[in-house]
């Protein structure tokens, strides 16, 4: 059996990920849209059918902005290979996600990902690792979008050598997203049911972590049954914002941030509450059956819909 490697912050933050290319087709974009509940209530929904079908042919379908987040999920296996990062992959949870859109996503293409470790924090009971991924259209070299993914590694904290907990981030403090969910009545509320099979469908978009499909693995991770992918919940929330605030116009989304507060079980009902502050939409997702907040964050728009 291989010896357990020592947790080494310096080695972790200087790690160089390999550049990775992912190619996708219209089929992947449509499968993703179905995986985050598009058209699940109404198969001819005129705000959502465009993500899965276009009368001019599949090459004309439109792509949801959160499709960009899939290109960070693919890094899970690379995180497990980081030298000096000693953690139990079964206890990994997705903590936060930030996505910045620079161009609308084409319905198919090849994406070149350049990833770096952008943060590492010792939280005592957990280590928090941040990874930034810049995604370029392979052929043109144009930067399309950026993801910052935070993973919460339960049981991997307590590695600091001094009394001050270790904390490294490459972002200035004014770049972190500060927001407070208002106490006032939301501007809009959107309710959506996830299906009991939601995670089984969503995983076909590329995140095959058995935490979302295998009851034994879910139990080891501390859950009574497989849980929903965090990025699937985020996809539901941003769809709710596109429908309720952007009036179906997904290209209005400039950036998206979200913190996963609690797990979601497939089959639960998601209630997304939204507050409009200028061009910022503050949002919170609650699970109706347990009346608990599971996700909150901010979406920034490039303009407001004229029909608001
Ligand atoms: C990646 C691809 C793989 C995908 C997997 C999935 O989809 S899994 C499914 C999707 N994901 C899920 O279902 C996960 C849902 N979320 C959870 O279950 C819980 O929020 C938790 C277990 C992540 C943390 O709970 P807890 O009670 O252990 O935490 P606490 O409140 O005691 O705070 C301790 C410290 O950690 C900080 N911190 C706290 N939360 C976060 C966060 N989210 N993010 C970052 N940091 C966070 C907090 O600020 C504090 O630091 P401070 O301020 O002291 O310096």
TrEMBL record:
Domain MaoC-like: 192-292
Peroxisomal multifunctional enzyme type 2-like N-terminal domain location: 22-155
Gene3D superfamilies given in the database record: Hotdog Thioesterase
Gene Ontology CC annotation, any one: peroxisome
GO annotation terms (biological process): fatty acid beta-oxidation
One GO molecular-function entry: enoyl-CoA hydratase activity
Pfam families: MaoC_dehydratas, MFE-2_hydrat-2_N
Protein name according to UniProt: Enoyl-CoA hydratase 2, peroxisomal
Native source organism of the sequence: Sesamum alatum
